[in-house]
Amino acid sequence: MKGPNVNIYKIQMAYFFREKSPIRTFGLISSLYAQLKDVFKTEPQSLPIPDEAPEDVPRCIWNDVNTSLTFNKVRLDFTFNIPSKSNWKQLLTEFNKKITVAIDEQEIIIDRVGLVSELMSADSLHELLKEYIQINKFNDAGEANISWLESIESYNVWTYFTINESKDINKIVFDINSLPECKLADQGTTGKEAMDKCAELLKGKMINVL
């Protein structure tokens, strides 16, 4: 059966650092700025955090209209909106290369990656799901959520459907993560390669949503 006509509009990329990695805030900011200064029209903001602060407290925030970046001593997150008619995979590939170059310059090991994408559907997801789900209360509902998990190689792929007819919400989210127990460096895989693999899995899910 033909899947819904979807358009991807936002992507979040997450890079999880090896535990107890020596994160030098100003060094990482400098490397990221060198790579992303043409992407952002703003300057990164270093936060005055004492060394004894919890590791998950943000050390840097860098926000712009269509992009945002933050990192702590555990992970780095980069989010970008996708303008209409833009090639999402090309943008993801370019950003992934720039970010991993900066992380590699600081000799930080990436143990795991995650990719979350948000998509809007031009077709009614509720009507599509009714052909698969024979539950009257679901089919008659004006608001519904459904999700499922697939394991593909060393990655978990979550699919979330969010439907709210009164608010005209017709959204799909794909959440793709490399498995925590399969640490990338131990598998001989770089963070860049793992994120590119997430992008390939996302491309496949967009073609074959159900």
How would you describe this structure to a colleague?
- With about 210 residues, the chain is α+β, with helices and mostly antiparallel strands.
- Helices cover about 30% and strands about 35% of the residues.
- A hairpin with a 2-residue loop joins strand 7 and strand 8 (about 155-165).
- It is globular, with a radius of gyration of 19 Å.
Q: State the distance separating the first and last CA atoms.
A: 9 Å
Alpha-beta classification: alpha+beta
* Arithmetic mean pLDDT: 90
Low-confidence stretches: none
Q: Count of DSSP E strands?
A: 9
Biggest sheet, open or closed, and with what strands and sense?
9 strands, antiparallel
- The helicity comes to 25-40%
Rounded radius of gyration (Å): 19 Å
Helix/strand order, N-terminal first: EHEEEEHEHHEEEH
Count every helix, treating DSSP H or I runs of 4 or more residues as helices: 5
Shape: globular
Percent of residues in beta strands: 25-35%
Q: Reading side by side through the largest sheet, how are the strands ordered?
A: 2-3-4-5-1-6-9-8-7
